[in-house]
Design brief:
With 125 residues, the chain is mostly helical. Helices cover 78% and strands 0% of the residues. The protein contains 5 helices and no strands. Helix 2 crosses helix 3.
């Protein structure tokens, strides 16, 4: 096997980044990758699995972060509800009516409902 000196330098510079123990392993990986590319007649189908796996990992990481944040918000909301319930006797009928009104308001505002808006709503403003 023969290759230009500049190509061998690329192997030298990059084989460790690919977690290869030897340069020959890196060259074999590169040849296999390129052969797969050629068989597909396009880089798109060959790269799709790589991109798909990368996207799956990114989405999973994002989902994990969102789930942790939702959990933290749920804990804070549970604390708030318990403090409010402990300090205010709310009739079950009033609570059910309020729940229905809140569902309508949250849908109307697409989930963006501030404490100030709730305060104004309770004051009839």
């Amino acid at each position: 096997m023969w290759m230009k000196h500049s190509t061998f330098e690329k192997v030298e510079e990059n084989y460790r980044e690919d977690n290869c123990q030897k340069k020959s392993e890196f060259i074999e990986n590169a040849v296999n990758f390129y052969c797969g590319y050629l068989k597909m007649n396009s880089s798109e189908p060959f790269l799709s699995p790589v991109l798909r796996e990368t996207m799956k990992k990114l989405i999973k990481a994002s989902d994990d972060r969102i789930c942790k944040l939702i959990f933290k918000i749920a804990v804070e909301l549970a604390i708030t509800m318990n403090v409010v319930a402990a300090n205010n006797g709310v009739d079950k009928e009033v609570l059910n009516s309020l729940r229905g009104e809140c569902i309508k308001e949250v849908k109307k505002t697409n989930g963006i409902f501030t404490f100030d808006e709730a305060d104004n709503w309770q004051k009839g403003l």
